[in-house]
Amino acid sequence: MHVTSAPLPPRVLHVTQPVDGGVARVVSDLVRRQRAAGMQVSVACPGSGGLARQVEALGCEVLEWRAVRSPARGLPGELRRLADVIARTRPDVIHAHSAKAGLVARLVVRGRIPTVFQPHAWSFEAVGGMGARLALTWERRAARWASRLICVSRAEQDTGEGHGIAGRWRLVPNGVDLERFHPDGPSARELPGVPATGPLVVCVGRLCRQKGQDVLVAAWEEVLRELPQARLLLVGDGPDAARLRAAAPPSVTFVGAVEDPTPWYRAADLTVLPSRWEGIALAPLEAMGCGSPVLLTDVDGARESLPPQLAHTCLAPPDDAPALARALVGLLRDAEGLPALGRAARRHVRAQHDVRRTAAAVADVYGELLGLETNECREPITT
After folding, report:
1. 41, 200, 256, 307, 379 from 203: Cα distances, Å
2. Which residue, 78, 116, 212, 276, has fewest beta-carbon neighbours within 10 Å?
3. Cα(245)–Cα(250) distance, rounded to whole angstroms?
4. Phi/psi at 269 (5° precision)
5. Long-range pairs of 35-38 with CB within 8 A, sequence gap ≥ 24
6. Are 352 and 173 in contact (CB under 8 A)?
7. What does 56-114 look like in DSSP terms, one character per residue?
8. What is the Cα gyration radius of the chain?
9. How many CB atoms lie within 10 A of CB 73?
10. Cα–Cα distance between 314 and 327 in angstroms, integer?
């Protein structure tokens, strides 16, 4: 009697640089769900930062891939090292995250292995002048070496298409772990040095130009003129930390990097992220999962991450400190209305941005590339 064996679960290699912030959280969430679905998962990334430690704790194989964020520095060595990793792991599918990993992985593989590229915001938005033109030229040409381009928001895909990138697109909105990001649990209001009363605004993110904390600090002086009891907590670290500290008034507290941001979201009367560009930011989704209302700048993905009825009150134009200050004051003055905004935000995230559905959608992409049935590479979703 002939017995047909079931196909083996796919071998997936995630390649990522950076290894911190939202990209790292996306990768670790995918690794957790993919291993639960039976996939054989490895991660190639630099050993610095927390990602390697996080995914190792999940039982995932980590292959150190020395690489820097800069697109040009050290490229020949990075190409050789990633080629060695791929030869050792022999993956069925490669999932490259962000600009640097997308650059190196596609140059090494050149379409010989099914390759998924997830930009997590476009590289040409992060630079100006000649750097932006070079990055855009590369993305246009390298799209042919990506079996699929995963965008985390419709706006991110529209930006790519509007700049002439002809990709085989898949829309997979970012999701968050609602078992972790929820309103019940410790709050930073209980920690020493955190004001127990008064309007408290929290910003969680890497301290860098993309996240726009410099615009927020500039806006904060105007907020204080209207609401002198307001306090701002900046949670995170990064290259702009020293400059921001020098410019910030005493009512701004620099918390630094934290392992778990949930107590800070729960403490916030309002969570703000004044980004200059995004694909779709994770921090606001995490904050909304914890029941915090959010104020975002109107960049790619922001409108899609909000309940439609809140877009007119919870968005401000990017890189505009006076407009951001007005939006902050307007929301903080409505102290009784903020909890209702938080509840609406929580309902929206539960309905639209559960990480289980994100992982299932990514598994569908892999299955499509490998000719597998959907349920052969998906973790069952239970409620």
Report:
1. 33, 10, 11, 20, 33
2. 276
3. 9
4. -75, -30
5. 35/59, 35/60, 36/379, 37/9, 37/359, 37/363, 37/377, 37/378, 37/379, 38/9, 38/377
6. yes
7. HHTT-EEEE----SSSSTTHHHHHHHHHHHHHHH--SEEEEEHHHHHHHHHHHHTTSS-
8. 21
9. 11
10. 8
Cα 362 to Cα 152: distance, rounded to the nearest angstrom = 11
| CA 253 vs CA 82, 195, 230, 240: distances in Å | 41, 11, 12, 15
CA dihedral defined by 279, 72, 56, 371, rounded to 10 degrees? 60
192: Cβ–Cβ under 8 A, 6 or more apart, which residues?
none
- pTM of the full predicted structure? 0.89
Q: How far apart, in whole angstroms, are the C-alpha atoms of residue 300 and residue 89?
A: 35
Going by DSSP bridges, is the β-strand pair 231-235/115-118 parallel, antiparallel, or unpaired?
unpaired
Q: Determine the Cα–Cα distance for residues 270 and 280; give it in Å rounded to an integer.
A: 19
Q: Is the pLDDT of residue 299 over 90?
A: yes
How many residues does this entry show for the chain? 383
Output the pLDDT for position 174: 95
In single-letter form, the type of residue at position 239 comes to: P
Residues 328-354 pLDDT 10s: 999 999 989 999 999 999 999 999 999
Residue 91 has pLDDT above 90, yes or no: yes
Q: What is the pLDDT of residue 373?
A: 61
The pLDDT value recorded for residue 2 is 43
Q: 359 is written with which tokens?
A: 């992982």
Nearest to 101 by CA among 217, 194, 14: 14
Q: In what side-by-side order are the strands of the sheet with 11-16?
A: 61-64, 40-45, 11-16, 93-97, 115-118, 148-151, 169-171
Kindly state the tokens that stand for 84. Answer: 């060695």
Amino acid occupying residue 317: P
Nearest in space to 242 (alpha carbons), one of 260, 224, 217, 261:
217
Question: In 3D, which of 333, 334, 341 has the Cα closest to residue 225?
Answer: 333
Query: What distance in Å separates the CA atoms of residue 327 and residue 240, rounded to the nearest whole number?
Result: 24
